[in-house]
Amino acid sequence: LPHPISSRLDYGGPSRELFYLLSRELFHPYYGLFEYSAPDQYTVQISPHSHLVQQEMQWMELAGRVLGLALLHRCLIDTFFTRTFYKMLLEQPVTVLDLQEFDPEFYRSMMWIRENPVDPSLGMTFVVTEEENGQVVEKELLPNGAELEVADQNKEEFISLMVKWRVERGIQRQSRALLRGLHQIIDRDFLRVFTVDQVELVLSGSREIDLEDWRKNTEYRVINIDRYFALPA
What we know:
Catalytic activity: S-ubiquitinyl-[E2 ubiquitin-conjugating enzyme]-L-cysteine + [acceptor protein]-L-lysine = [E2 ubiquitin-conjugating enzyme]-L-cysteine + N(6)-ubiquitinyl-[acceptor protein]-L-lysine
Radius of gyration: 22 Å
CATH architecture of the domain at 4-93 and 170-207: Alpha-Beta Complex
Protein name: HECT-type E3 ubiquitin transferase
GO molecular function, one term: ubiquitin protein ligase activity
EC number: 2.3.2.26
InterPro entries: E3_ubiq-protein_ligase (IPR050409), HECT_dom (IPR000569), Hect_E3_ubiquitin_ligase (IPR035983)
C-alpha cells in the first residue's frame, strides 16, 4: 500500500522509477518475450519465439498497457525498440528502408532487387520459404503467387509484400495482443498525432546526450556553473 505521506510528495519520481524498473524487466530479452535486433544489443523487438513463454498473450497485453501508461504519464522507459516496432505501435506501413536496422542482410537483398534488372532465368516467383513446426514450407505472398514471376514491372509489389512478410513473420499474434493492451489505455486516434521519431522520443528519450542542451536547460542553484564545471566549447 502507498505510504500516505510519500504519495502526497510523489512529484513523479516514484512513478518514473516504476516505469523504468518495470520496463527493464518486461522488455529484457532474457525473459523471452522480446529479442535484440539483428545488428546490435541496444534495440529490441518482439521475439518470434515468445510462444515458448507461458501465458504469452497476457504478457504481451501487459506490455502494451505499460507502453500506453508510459505515454500517458510521460514517463521514460529503459528500452529502445526498432523502428519497425514503433511503426507497429502507430499502425503505419513499413517500407524497405525501415529494415536497414531491423535486418541489414534482408534490406540489402531487397535493395539489390530494386536497383538491378530482374533476371528471368532465376525463376523468382511471389513465394517465400519459412520454417513451420520444424519443417520448411513454401508460402505464397498473394493468391496464385507461385505462378506469378517477378519482373521489372512488378518487383516493387514483390518488395512490398516481402517486407510485410519479413516484419510480421512469427509475431502477428503477439503484435495484436500488444496493441490490444495499448488501446485499452490510449485510443488509436490519439496515437495518430505522433510520428515514429516522436513516439520514440516520448517513450525512450534521446539516444544521444547533448551536453550543451543540458547546460542551457538545467537550473543551477547556489553554485557558480562556470567555476565548478568545464564543458567543451
